[in-house]
Design goal:
The protein is of the alpha+beta class. The protein has one domain. It is built from 6 helices and 10 strands, in the order βααβββββααβββαβα. It has a 6-stranded mixed β-sheet with strand order 2-5-6-7-9-8. The longest helix has 27 residues. The protein is globular and about 55 Å long.
Length: 231
């Protein structure tokens, strides 16, 4: 991946914007998510798995969106295929990305300066809003549907992964990546969950910037700069 396909982000800046910025900027948050939201989630997951879990990670670009046929005949799409490879394990994550934040409806702010007690309480409450004996909301429930595997990846195990902006964890722990056991009625045994804000908060003390793989965001930014020039 060349440097021209990467975006440099500031962990503290992103956390400050999404978790603590005034609600009057909600329109800006929606616009930013449209340009960079999905790639931010995928790029941060790749950075986390490579630097914290020792995986070799590929964000599939030829099949970034995969359809699934529901029994009703309605088609569902997830956001990305993420291939994570270890020497003894190869996983093809079917990833749904939600950038719901303090700007979203019913969103709650979480300052960077939050205490350990405040963080733990927020993580638990945030997870409860998403899960009760299963995922609560249809926009996230679709991650548990069996998707059509892209050609050429039969060697990898397909697993569902939910990428969320908000800090969350069932037990209130600081770990940004965790698994939950699914009810026996599901096709998959476990659901992996990745919190973007939680991961960025672990980087803030040591990193003033991080370079993420976000090629489509760069294309969009270049187009915006071409179409709209400051007078």
């Amino acid at each position: 991946m060349s440097s021209s396909e990467k975006v440099r982000i500031g962990p503290a800046d992103l956390v400050g914007f999404y978790d603590t910025a005034p609600r009057v900027t909600g329109g800006a948050a929606n616009a930013i998510n449209a340009v960079a939201g999905e790639e931010l989630g995928a790029g941060l997951l790749k950075h986390y798995l490579e630097n914290s879990k020792g995986a070799s990670v590929t964000i599939l670009q030829e099949h970034p969106i995969s359809p699934a046929q529901a029994q009703t005949g309605k088609r569902y799409w997830l956001d990305r295929w993420i291939l994570a490879e270890w020497p003894n394990r190869k996983v093809l994550f079917q990833m749904e990305i939600k950038n719901w934040s303090a700007h979203s409806l019913d969103g709650k702010e979480l300052p960077i300066s939050a205490t350990l007690e405040e963080l733990k309480a927020y993580r638990i409450e945030s997870w409860k809003r998403e899960w009760y004996e299963g995922l609560r909301k249809p926009p996230t429930q679709k991650v548990l549907m069996q998707m059509k595997r892209p050609k050429g990846y039969d060697y990898a195990t397909v697993e569902p992964l939910l990428g969320m902006w908000a800090v969350m964890h069932p037990a209130g722990d600081s770990e940004p990546f965790f698994e939950v056991k699914l009810p026996a009625t599901h096709h998959f045994e476990n659901l992996s969950v990745f919190s973007m804000s939680a991961y960025l908060r672990t980087l803030i003390p040591a990193c003033d910037h991080v370079d993420l793989e976000m090629p489509r965001t760069i294309e969009r930014l270049n187009l915006l700069n071409k179409l709209f020039v400051s007078a």
